[in-house]
Amino acid sequence: MIAPKDLEHCVESIRHGSRSFHAASRLLPARVRNPALALYAFCRLADDAVDLQSAKGDAVLRLHDRLDKAYAGRPKDAPADRAFAAIIEEFEMPRALPEALLEGLAWDAMERRYDDLSGLRAYSARVASAVGAMMCVLMRVRDRDALARACDLGVAMQLTNIARDVGEDAREGRLYLPLDWLAEAGIDPDAFLKAPAMTPDLGRVVRRLLREVQGLYHRSEAGIAALPLGARPGIYAARFIYAGIGQQVARQGYDSITRRARTNKAQKLGWLALSILRTGATLALPRSSVIHARPVPETAFLITATADHRQVPHWSDGLNATLEILHTREEERRAALMSSAHGLR
Length: 345
Description:
- GO terms for molecular function: geranylgeranyl diphosphate synthase activity; squalene synthase [NAD(P)H] activity.
- This is Phytoene synthase.
- The protein has 16 helices and no strands.
- The relative contact order is 0.13.
- The protein is an all-alpha fold.
- The protein has helices at about 5-15, 20-25, 30-50, 55-70, 80-90, 95-110, 115-140, 145-165, 165-170, 180-185, 190-195, 200-225, 230-250, 265-285, 300-305, 315-345.
- Helix content is about 70%, strand content about 0%.
- It has a single domain, classed as Farnesyl Diphosphate Synthase (Orthogonal Bundle), CATH 1.10.600.10.
C-alpha cells in the first residue's frame, strides 16, 4: 500500500519528532502500525509546517492545497504526502477528519484564545480527536461508541500536552488555558504572556485542567476494549504514557513554567508492560457500560463524519470560513509590508 521508502521516511520522522507515539506504536500489529506511523508523519508535517513558519496563514493555505492534491490522487512529491494519499485510498478516509485538523492548525495561526473549557475542547477535538478518529479508521472501526471513546482519549491527550507546555507556549506568545479559569484565579492573560511566571494561582489552574482529563482517560479505556485485539496494547500504551506526563506535571507541583515534564525510558517500558497486562484483562471481563457514555459534545461532528462517512456531505464550511479569514489577514500583512518598504524608499 505505502511505498517502502516513503514508510521508512515516515518512521524516522516519528522516531525523532514524537517519541511517545513511537514507543506506543511498537505494540501495534504491523497492519495498523505502518499506516499509523505514516498518518502521524503527515499530521506532524502539517503541525510543523504551521508552527515553524512566520507566515502561518500562508502555511495553512498551502497545507489545504496539499490535502486537495492527496484526495485527488495526485499528492505532492514528498514521502508523507504520498503515504497519506495511499491511506486515503486504502481506508476510505473521511475528508472531514484531516480538514478538522487543518482547521485547528488555522486557529493556532490566528493565535486564537479560548473563553472556556468548551472552546478548548473544540480545539482539542480538531488537533487531537480527529487523529484518534483517523486511527479508528485504520483499524477498520467505525462504531459510534468506539469512536466517541477514541475522541475522549484525543481530548485528554491534548489537554495533557497543554498542561505540560504552559510555559513553553507562553514564551512563544501562545495561551491555551481557558480565559474564564484565569479570570477566576486573578491572572491577567496579557500580563502573563509578557512575563510568564509560576505562581500558586497558576498551579491551581493547571491542576484543574489535569483533573478534567482523568475522567476522559477512564472513559477511553472502555473504547479500547472495543478495538481489534491486536491493536489494544498500543492504544493502552498511548493512554498510559500521556497520562504519565500529566502525573509528572503533578509531581513537579504543577509547575510547567520553569520545568517541562518528561518521562524516562524505564517509565515507558513499565507502561508498555502494563498495557499488555490490561489487554489480557479485557478478555476476562465483560464490556464496560461506559462504552455507551455520551460523547463530548465538541467531538460529535467527527463521530458523525466517520461512522456515516458515505452519507455525510462534504464537510468544509467551518474550515473554508477560517481559511477566508486567514487569507484576508495574509493579504493585509503583505500590503502593510509593501507599504512599509515603499515608505523606506
